[in-house]
Specification:
The protein is α+β, with helices and mostly antiparallel strands. It folds into two domains: 215 residues, Cytochrome Bc1 Complex, Chain A, domain 1 (2-Layer Sandwich), CATH 3.30.830.10; 53 residues, no CATH class. It is 30% helix and 17% strand. It is built from nine helices and nine strands. Helix 2 packs across helix 7 and helix 4 packs parallel to helix 8.
């Protein structure tokens, strides 16, 4: 059993309140099961599943079985690879797929299974055109993996992941108590008590062999593919028992496995550039002696008003920026009104 108690009282007071409530819980010395043999074996690999959704959505998911990476949390090779696969800037997999008009979003990284095994997944939201290029999207994914293999693990990329994770942990926002205690109670089974709070965040050991080991597991002959689209309404031959979902499962053609195994690289896919804006020094600059109690107007032009308020309460290396765009054009006629609604999602993706 794992127990986490959160309260405004002192540790001593909380202990006095809780211990009598759990003192009679018997320790049965139960050994937690661990599955060292991955449930996804050769019989389940090289499969593609087509699913017909209720809503009009289009998704492609690529999945590979990997070992349990939790014992290597100080290196966190899955996070390292997920950081690169999920990169969205120049040279990234997402950037190339978006340029071709095939996907809207991409998410990649390790995914939990059970104690002893995990998965590595790459999930994309497909455009209408993208669902006609499933094989091409998978080809680009393997070309990105091939580039990573050629480049090899980089200390500077690991350091960026480490610094970002450390910053997230150090300045972690307040969570809902119920959610937080539930999460920590589960982590007690995975980390030592001294690392139960920091373990999911802090990275300290760069081990390139571990990163290479995980990357080598991402092979075409170990892959499973899941495609979701209403396009496959006439392609499915199985109905799921409980929800009535229509789907079908097929073997991936050997010719495609060979094609992806020999797809080489794509010159447009590269490592991300070094991020010089990741902070490591969080010392605050000197504050104003008498900070203003209200925001002050520091720029006033025909197009812009800029207001500023120096924080003198929280004293954290954080900034909050709010933009208010005022224009009557958005409601001047139906065309501009619809154009404004098209603009909103673009701004949200910045």
């Amino acid at each position: 059993m794992g127990l986490c108690v959160l309260g405004k009282e002192s540790i001593e007071e909380l202990t006095e309140m809780v211990v009598p409530l759990i003192a009679n819980v018997e320790n049965m010395n139960v050994v937690v099961p661990e599955w060292k043999d991955h449930p996804v074996g050769p019989a389940q690999m090289k499969k593609i599943a087509y699913t017909v959704p209720v809503k009009d959505v289009r998704n492609l998911s690529m999945s590979w079985p990997i070992m349990d990476l939790h014992p290597y949390f100080k290196c966190n090779p899955g996070h390292y690879l997920g950081h690169l696969v999920g990169h969205e800037g120049k040279g990234s997999l997402l950037s190339e797929l978006k340029n071709r008009g095939w996907v809207n979003t991409l998410c990649g990284g390790q995914s939990p299974g059970a104690k002893g095994f995990m998965f590595f997944k790459v999930d994309v939201d497909l455009t209408e055109e993208g669902q006609e290029h499933i094989d091409d999207i998978i080809t680009l994914t393997y070309q990105y993996f091939n580039m990573l293999k050629r480049e090899g693990p980089k200390q500077w990329i690991f350091d960026e992941c480490k610094d970002l994770s450390a910053m997230t942990f150090r300045f972690k926002g307040k969570e809902k108590p119920r959610n937080y205690t539930t999460q920590v109670a589960g982590l007690i089974h995975k980390y030592s008590l001294s690392e139960v709070l920091s373990g999911p965040y802090l990275m300290s050991e760069f081990q390139p062999d571990l990163i290479t080991m995980v990357l080598d597991k991402l092979q075409p002959d170990r892959m499973r593919i899941f495609v979701v689209s209403k396009k496959f309404e006439d392609k499915t031959n199985i109905k799921e028992k409980w929800y009535g979902t229509d789907y079908s499962v097929e073997d991936i053609q050997d010719s495609k496995i060979q094609m992806w195994s020999k797809c080489g690289e794509n010159e447009n896919l590269t490592l991300p550039e070094k991020n010089d804006f990741i902070p490591t020094d969080f010392e605050l600059v000197p504050r104003e002696v008498d900070p203003a109690s209200l925001p002050e107007l520091i720029k006033d032009s025909a197009m812009t008003q800029l207001w500023f308020k120096q924080d003198d309460t929280y004293l954290l290396p954080k900034a909050c920026i709010n933009f208010e765009l005022i224009s009557s054009l958005g409601r001047s006629d139906p065309v501009n009104c619809n154009l404004m609604y098209c603009l909103f999602p673009c701004l949200k993706m910045l």
